[in-house]
Amino acid sequence: MSVRSYKDKQGNRIQGKFIIDYYPKGYKGKREQRVFAGTEGDAHIYEKELRQQNTGRANYINPKIADVLPEYLAWLKLHRAPRTYEDIKKSLKWMMPHFGNLQFSRLTPAICNQYKQKRAGRPRATNKELAYLQSIIKYAVKNEYAQPLPFRIEKLPYKRPMPNIPHPLDIEKLIAAVQKDKERKQSLLLFMWECGLRFGDASHIKWEDIDWQSGTVKLIQKGGGERVAIMTDRIISLLKPIKQAQGYVFENKRTGKPWQSLKCLFTTASKNAGIKRFNPHALRHAAATYLLEATDNIRLVQQFLGHKDITTTQIYTKVSAQRLKEGMQRAANYISCLKDAQTIKNKKE
C-alpha cells in the first residue's frame, strides 16, 4: 500500500486529498484505489487500518465508534445509574453524527476541536459530551477493540457561574401557590428546598425507598451511589395521605416514569405567586447557602448535599462571602444616605 497526493487531470496536486493504493485480498489480488480527504497524517493512519483489515481482524482491532456503541450501552445499563445511562443516550444525538463513523484510531485533536466549534456557546454541555466520548474510548480499550489515544482530549474553559439564591419568602410563596396535585408537587419542592436534593434525585424516589418509622428515604444519587436523606415533618404530612406500596412517588401517569421537568410547574406557580421565576435547581442552592450561613459548618453542608468532594461544596462559601459583601455595600450606602441627610439638615439650620 502507499499514500500519495491526489492530482487533477492537469497533474496539479490537490491540497487535503490523497490516493491510497489498496489490495483488499492481499498483494496477489486486484489493486484498488481510495480517495481520502484530510491531512497526510490521517491518510497514513487510514492506510494502516486498511492493512489491518487484510488480517481478517478489522472488527476486533479497529471498529468504528458506532459499531461498539450497542455493546457499550448494554454494559452501561448494567453498571451505571439509570439517569447516567439516559443522559448519555440523549448526548449521543449530538456526538454520533460527528464521531460515529470514525474508527478510534482516526480520532485526532483537530476532529475534537471541530466538535467544540460545532457546539460553540455550550461549554459545559460540550465538556460533558467529551467526557462521555472518553468513557466509550476507555471501554473500547479495555475490551481490546482499540488502542489508547496518543493525545489528551482538551476540555473547553468553563467557569461555573455563581448561583442565584432566591429569598426564603419567595420560595414559600412559590410552594403555597401550587394547588393542583398539591400533596405530590409541594412535597417534591420541599425535598429540594428543605432537604437540598437535586431534582433528579428527588424525582426518582420510590415508595418502597421510604422508611416511615425513621422518617428517612434512600436515594440513588447521580453516579449510582446511595445515601439516606431525612424527611421533614412537612414532607411526611403531605405524603402520608397518598402513600402507596410501590412505584415512583413522582410518577408520570402516562409514561410510568418519573417526572422529567418542572418548567411548567415553576412558570405557573411563579406567576400565581407574583414572584420572579427562578431555576428549580436554585432551591438546592438556597438550602445549602442558608444552612451554611446558619451553622458556618462546611462539613455539615457537604453531608447535607451528598457531595463526595468538599471542593464542590466550597462554592457556597463564595456565595456567602458575596452575599456578605453585598450586604456590607448596602449598609455603607445606607450610612452614606444618613450622613448626606444630616449634612443637608445642618446647612438648613
Tell me about this structure:
The radius of gyration is 29 Å and the shape is extended. The protein has helices spanning 40-53, 58-61, 65-79, 82-99, 109-118, 123-142, 168-176, 182-193, 199-203, 233-239, 263-273, 282-295, 298-305, 310-313, 315-348, and strands at residues 2-7, 13-22, 32-37, 210-211, 216-220, 226-230. The strands form 2 sheets. It has a 3-stranded antiparallel sheet, covered by helices on one side. Strands 4-5-6 form a 3-stranded antiparallel sheet, with no helix packed on it. It has 15 helices and 6 strands. Helices cover 53% and strands 10% of the residues. By secondary structure, the chain is mainly α.
The tally of strands reads: 6
Beta-strand residue percentage = 5-15%
State the helicity in percent bands: 40-55%
**Overall residue-averaged pLDDT value:** 83
- The strand order across the widest sheet is 1-2-3
Please give the alpha-carbon distance between the first and last residues.
101 Å
* Order of helix and strand elements from N to C terminus: EEEHHHHHHHHHEEEHHHHHH
Class derived from helix and strand content: mainly alpha
Taken from the alpha-carbon principal axes, the silhouette is: extended
Could you name the ranges where pLDDT drops below 50 across 5 or more consecutive residues? Answer: 55-59
Round the Cα radius of gyration to an integer and report it.
29 Å
Q: How many distinct helices?
A: 15
Described by strand count, sense and barrel closure, the largest sheet is:
3 strands, antiparallel
